[in-house]
Amino acid sequence: MTPRTSGRTARRPLRLPSWLPVDGYVLALLGTVALAALLPASGTAATVTEGASTGAVALLFFLYGARLSTREALDGLKHWRLHLAVLGCTFLLFPLLGLAARGLVPGVLTPQLYSGFLFLCLVPSTIQSSIAFTSIARGNVPAAICAGSFSSLAGIVLTPLLAALLLGNSAGGLSADALLKIVLQLLVPFLAGQFLRRWVGGFLLRHKKALGYVDRGSILLVVYTAFSQGMVAGIWHLVTPARLGALLAVEVVLLAVMLGLTWYGARRLGFDRADRIAIQFAGSKKSLAAGLPMASVLFGPHASLAVLPLMLFHQMQLMVCAVIAKRRARDPEAAEETGTASAPAPAAPGVPAAGA
Questions:
Q1: One-character DSSP codes across 212-233
Q2: Closest CA relative to residue 118, chosen from 329, 306, 268, 322
Q3: Nearest alpha-carbon partner for 196 in 70, 31, 66, 310
Q4: Do 148 and 282 form a contact (C-beta atoms < 8 A)?
Q5: DSSP labels for 9-36?
Q6: Residue 342, CA distances (Å) to 127, 202, 329, 334 in order
Q7: Phi and psi for 125 in degrees, rounded to 5?
Q8: How many angstroms separate the CA atoms of 1 and 269, rounded?
Q9: Which range among 4-13, 81-90, 301-310 shows the weakest confidence by mean pLDDT?
Q10: Closest CA relative to residue 204, chosen from 354, 346, 72, 71
Q11: What band does 206 get if pLDDT is binned at 50, 70 and 90?
Q12: Cα–Cα dist 155/290, whole Å
């Protein structure tokens, strides 16, 4: 019988193999870095872009606060053991591994790259991509939603404080000026978003797609400003191809260790398969969308090298976790736990707009 859906099939967008996700937004980030290298903002243009970047960071955290449902977060506290496990991985195990990597300086990593690597270990977890991977792997999706939200909320406070304590002068220390910048650019807009959520929440929901472009454009502006400052300051002579290769190798080890610890550690703690999946994907990943604006506030002119490890790790985690999620969905164990399984997502995830 001749199928009659050929016209409908022809209109379907082409998809790359699910085991090889290409992060289009990271390509846009790399393009922004190239633009900053060729045409860095200097003089008056630098002043304008820096002011616009400051406003963009405040806008991002306002939107984060306005989108976070306080009721959903409070309801999610019922699964407190899982959330403590994710928070422990994000803000305890990751920083400990980052501190352990201090022994790689200066033989493997330069001091500047190590500062960025340690900052990567302090960034909160993702939200949207953790949810998508958990869904594909047939894990506990509601737990992943709450765990990612709690991590992002805690990161508003914990990431700047941990960076100030562990990175010292590299992140501005604990000076009054540094704390004031954190409060004004990160915490105040976030709290304002939470306060105004009851009035602006409906508008944000109706214009979710358009605001996603606002998120992404704001982050691209932050990246352009940071890398322009790096080019003007002449810091890129510190990064050689060999150093970049060493950084990638260290990040491969970091991701592998965290994927193993989250999976087998959750099993030892008595979590079932669906919860282990949520813990693995929420506890082993880092948010590019939250980390980039935080770095611009904490590191200032040195933010370009500070965010480089995070950008590389972000793309790596997406590719590796996409493969793992597909394999988890095909595990024989998955078929035995259909009562707690979630339907797999229709396609491999791309890059989330906010909280990625």
A1: HHHHHHHHHHHHHHHHHHHHHH
A2: 306
A3: 66
A4: yes
A5: HHTSPP---TTS---HHHHHHHHHHHHH
A6: 17, 27, 10, 10
A7: -75, 170
A8: 55
A9: 4-13
A10: 354
A11: confident
A12: 8
- Confidence (pLDDT) at 56: 81
pTM: 0.73
Output the CA–CA distances (angstroms, integers) from residue 288 to 12, 22, 125, 283, in the order listed: 30, 16, 9, 15
Do 143 and 130 touch, CB atoms closer than 8 A?
Answer: no
Tokens linked to 328 = 């988890």
**What span, in angstroms and rounded, lies between the C-alpha atoms of 280 and 292?**
23
Q: How far apart are CA 184 and CA 177, in angstroms?
A: 10
> With the CA atoms of 141, 142, 148 and 151 taken in that order, what torsion angle do they form, in degrees rounded to the nearest 10?
-140
**Residue 132: exposed, middle, or buried by beta-carbon count in 10 A (0-12, 13-18, 19+)?**
buried
Q: Specify the amino acid at residue 315.
A: Q
Q: Which amino acid is at 342?
A: S
Helix (H, G, I), strand (E, B) or coil at 291: helix
Collapsing DSSP states into helix, strand and coil, what is residue 115? helix
pLDDT in the model for residue 341: 40
Residues 273 and 267: their CA atoms lie apart, in Å, by 8
Angle between the 24-38 and 303-329 helix axes, to the nearest 10 degrees?
Answer: 160
Question: Which tokens sit at 35?
Answer: 């633009």
Share of the chain above pLDDT 70, in %: 77
Average predicted confidence (pLDDT) for the chain: 78
